[in-house]
Amino acid sequence: MKHFLLAATFLIACLGAAPGAETPSELKPFVRGSWQDVRHSHAGRPTLVHFWGVTCGPCKVELPLLGQFMKDHSEVDVVMISADLVPNLDSATRAMLEKAGLASAENWIFSDGFVERLRFEIDPAWQGDIPRTLLIGRDGTVTTIEGSAEIPDLEKWLFQQTATSK
């Protein structure tokens, strides 16, 4: 029976998701040094980094809007980082990302019990309030949005990024 279950699991993984379904990305553990990895891997590209949490009410409203923004603007790298202080929310995090259309974004989850250290690496002045969005320009310039990000503001930033690259 055990071999049958393993074979069935393997077959389902090989076949992939149903047609039209979004393929979920890996939920990477955000630990010490991850911020430098994110910055390095997206250098030279306009990147939206959004800090959110399963327990954050405004985040639940904002996530589907960001999912639509990502769908409409493939020229922007979207990085989602779940910064909940409550541990063991992996399944709830995945479910919220899938529902919002963000499962295929680059997704991370705080995985260090010392979250203050993680926040300090990102921005020494950040006290941990979410939602929080960092817009990283092609030139590495960071614009911080405290609270919910407005789509017109994101589109204005993106327009500036494309105007400066020409």
From TrEMBL:
Molecular functions (GO terms): disulfide oxidoreductase activity
Q: State the name under which the record lists this protein.
A: TlpA family protein disulfide reductase
Key words, A-Z = Redox-active center, Signal
Is Disulfide bond set as a keyword in this record?
no
* Signal peptide (from-to): 1-20
Looking up InterPro entries in the UniProt record yields: Thioredoxin-like_sf, Thioredoxin_CS, Thioredoxin_domain
Show where the Thioredoxin domain sits.
Answer: 17-163
> To which species is this protein native?
Bradyrhizobium australiense
In terms of superkingdom, the source organism counts as: Bacteria
Q: What broad taxonomic lineage does this protein's source fall under?
A: Bacteria, Pseudomonadati, Pseudomonadota, Alphaproteobacteria, Hyphomicrobiales
